[in-house]
Amino acid sequence: MQRGDLPVHGGRTLAYVYDSGDPEVDRVAREAVAAYAASNALDPTAFPSLLQMENELVGFACDLLDAPESAVGTVTSGGTESILLAVQGARDSRPDVVRPRMVLPATAHAAFHKAAHYFGVEAVLVPVGPDFRADARAMAEAIDDDTVLVVASAPSYAHGVVDPVADIAAAAAARGVRCHVDACIGGWVLPYAARLGREVAPWTFAVEGVTSISVDTHKYAYAPKGTSLLLHRDAALRKPQIFASAAWPGYTMLNATTQSTRSGGPIAGTWAVVEHIGDAGYLDLADRAFAAVDAIVACIDDEPALRLVVPPDSTLVTLATDDSCDPFTLTDELVSRGWYVQPQLSYGDAGPTVHLSVSAGTRAHVEEFATALSESVAAAQAAGPVAVDPGVVAFVEALDPTALGDDDFDGLLAASGLVGASADGGLELPGRMAEVNAMLDVASPAMREALLVAFLDRLQRPVRHEARGGAR
Q1: CA–CA separation, 19 vs 219, rounded Å?
Q2: Can you name the residues that pair with 153 across neighbouring β-strands?
Q3: Which positions bear N6-(pyridoxal phosphate)lysine (predicted)?
Q4: What CATH code is assigned to 279-383?
């Protein structure tokens, strides 16, 4: 069944997965996950080994992120849950605020918008500067008496640059507001970047005013999917995050995360990997990852049709194309050559870009990437720009995304090329995505959301027993 999936090893998948390049890391992780797959972190008194692992993981991260002795932390299921909890905890710490708000740079991760939707916290978006970093002065001016949280990124996902955390945290502290640093991407690699002599702006708990940090272990800790950490400067800041309920006849529910039952597998896998790699190992892996970043930046500089959107502060590289090279076709061409990269659609006045998440496992294959990139640019230039049918554009523009019916959705899906009919009557994904992405790019953000919601809804339909052809 995995034959059609993206490869998770080999350093060529530059989104979604993070590859250390070391098969032994994968072996250690698999064995630990399997050993604890049936364990439940719901009750730490029932599985004290999981509690010990969680506390040791938090301790490792505290040392990494300059946390004071008072710091505490929680293992979550991923960066989004860490962010959700940071927002929920900030909201619940201020019961006096009727309409809570949080101040975000426009480049903050979409998980904050998810948290706003879930928890009724208004997201106040502040435009970023020309360097794609948060505008600290504008963010300070956006803080008011209803603000419960101010956010900075280290780095931001779309562009890979670190916000001016010191200035943002100072502004938040001056108003008595929490400041969360989203370091889900950079938290486990930027400290090593600094030790390797690379320039890194201050962003950890060493910065006064930073009250919490999210850092994903399933990224540059190279641990199995399903773990992240949310650290707080002290226990009082974490307390509103913890949920308890005795308002029913069963056990008194007590949860430090949004989950109740939590598989011990990802926790054990993460702990085993961190113990196996260790501090010196992570320094070496960071060195390899940044060597890959530098080499890829050089590849981009060698292609006249390409440019860096901004020099990367971390391991995320974002490139743009000139008019001779369609970015969506470039993405397809790289994918066809075994390199998965992620297209990013237009936002505001900025055009579409191509995004790469570089990990240590990519270092050994950079020369192959250089060849694939050069060939892909030439192929994209030969193919020319992707043209969206004017009739399709007019159809999309005439629709109200808030009032679409099933027929409208079906028409959009068919027009976009997102789905087609397979031999068994189901949905078939397109082999190339350039035309699909070009159509999405001309749609408004609200229409993109509506279309992709319909797309996901059509994809996730049950496969009945008879269709599988198995015996009960």
Answers
A1: 9
A2: 182
A3: 219
A4: 3.90.1150.10
